[in-house]
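Trying the structure run again after the queue cleared.
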Amino acid sequence: MRTALVLLFLAATASAGRLDWTGSAACGQCHAAQLAGWQATPHATTRDRFSGRPPSVCLGCHATGEAPAGPAVAVEVGCEACHGAGTAYSPDDIMRDRPVALALGLADLSTPKARTALCMSCHARTTRERPFDPMAKVH
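Done. Tokens:
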């Protein structure tokens, strides 16, 4: 059973397509407080930083999706930019079973080390106007 879950996880995360992303509004149906908190952060207003469609090179950090290698599904650093494409793990019965949700693509951000590593994949860049605060609220 465990091998099947690992294979299913690898297949689900190897190539997330446009239909694999649920969008932050869908996440907010169950996680309303987190969605409201996120909406007050710069992650939610990423689109406002660009006058038009951002260059692909920018979308790796300033979008949710596969950019720059694949499509960006939203020009915002939405829920799935950090937690992974959610279609496979978002149903309520799966979300309540953490090992299964993790196996289906939910990113494990349960430790400060894991969260910092994820955040630093974008925030380590020197293009920031102000220093990165790893303790800042993201939702």
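The two ends are 34 Å apart (CA to CA). Worth checking whether this holds up in the mutant runs.
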